[in-house]
Design brief:
237 residues; mainly alpha; 10 helices; elongated
Amino acid sequence: MSSIGRALKASQAALQCRSFQTSTVAFAKKHPKQIKKENLAKRAALAAEFERTKPSPVVAAPTPFYASLHTPETVLQSTEAYQHGLTDDEAKLLFEQAPEAITDITKSSVVRSKEEALKDEQHKGDIVKKIISLQNANAKAIQLWNTQRCIEWFGRKEGDTGSPEVQAAILSVRIQNLHSHLQSHKKDRHNYRELRSMVHQRAKILKYLKSKSLTRYQTCLEALGLQARAVEGEIIV
C-alpha cells in the first residue's frame, strides 16, 4: 500500500472516531443538577415576566364611570351640574317651573305686566343658578359631588352608602385624585403614605366583596377599570 493510501485510510478512521465522540456527547443524558438549574432559571424568568406585566394597583383604565366624574378642570365646561346634591328634576322645578308659579301666587302682575314680573323672577332664578353651580364650587364641593355620583352609580338601593361597591368606588376616586396630585408634587411624602393606605384599604374591601359574590366582584372591577391581579395578593405601591 502506498503512503498516500495509508494517509487516506488514517484520515477516514480519525473522522469516524470524531463523529462517534460527537454523537455520544449530543445524546448523553443531562445531569439532574443541570436539569434542576435550568428549570429554576426558567421559573425565575417567568416570575420576572409576570411581575413586569402586572397592572398598576393605582392607575385604573378609563371607564364610563370615570368619564362621568368632574375635576376642577372639567367642571368649567359643565353647565348642568349643581352643588348641595341638587338633582336634575329639582333644578328643573326650581329654575323653570318656580318663577311662573311665584308670579301667579304673589300676584306681581297686578302692579306690572305678567311678562315683566315673570322676567324678574327668572332673573332671580339665574342668580341662584350661578351661585349653586358646580362651576363656582371649591375642590371639596367637587369631591362631594363625585361621592354622590359613586352612590348613584354603584348603590344597590337608593341612599346606599355602605355597600362594598360604593366604598370601593369612593376610594378609587380619591386614589385617582391623589395620584394626579402626587404627579406634580413628588416630595409630598405624607400624601404618598395616605395613597398606599387607601390602595390597601380598597383591596380589603374588594376581597370581602369577592367572598360575598364573585359576580358582583367582577362587575365592580370592570366598572372601576381594575384587573384582579392589581388588587389581589401582595400589593406594592
